């Protein structure tokens, strides 16, 4: 039995997957890139989901994939079958802007470049919860369309569909976002390795915590090959110990659906 088949087989046999608290593996190796992100990392963003009264209700990460389009996890955008009222998207990797809000005082204030949602979308079967749990996890992706072209400032990331062979040969990754243990207006990057994968999911050891959900898993070419969204909380195996964090793999079907909604 070759090594690649064994890795894939182990993950298929684990069966139960669960959304849970992603892990720090060993020493925390995340590095802050707030305001100084370079290249493609500038397109990673922080999301604040708000209720109708403007109260912040949930925090996640995401990726600009077009001038007005963000890719994230579906579980970031909905709660108990309903969308959050609005989403504020912060490009925390960019330098703050000086904005004069009070023309009388003429005093500039520094603000993180941001945009607000005009539309939100997740797969309908995810929203209605009309499928078994394991199938819902395969639909854990969503789109936010924005009121301003934030991607023109920050740039945007491409999605890549990798074959099993390519994924096996290019397993070094970077995860970008803001973990829940970090200040809100910050951006962090962690490095790691994919240790296992199957048709729909990848498992890795890059450091991340709650709040990284929906953020990109990038390959060596800084293309999105998966979305961070869960860990192997139910599996007491060596895979769970060594590669505890996971994400939804970018497939051709997912890529086509997402790119049809880019603005």
Could you give a short description of this structure?
With 263 residues, this protein is α+β, with helices and mostly antiparallel strands.
Write the layout of secondary structure elements.
Layout: H1 3-14, E1 31-32, E2 44-50, E3 56-66, E4 69-72, H2 74-77, E5 78-79, E6 82-83, E7 86-90, E8 97-100, E9 108-111, E10 114-121, H3 124-128, H4 133-137, E11 142-146, H5 150-154, H6 164-169, E12 172-177, E13 188-197, E14 201-204, E15 216-218, E16 224-231, H7 238-242, E17 245-249, H8 252-259
Antiparallel strand pairs: 1-13, 2-3, 2-7, 3-4, 4-11, 5-6, 7-10, 8-9, 10-11, 12-13, 12-15, 13-14, 14-17, 15-16, 16-17
Notable traits:
six-stranded antiparallel beta barrel, Thrombin, subunit H, six-stranded antiparallel β-barrel, alpha+beta, 263 residues, globular, 34% strand
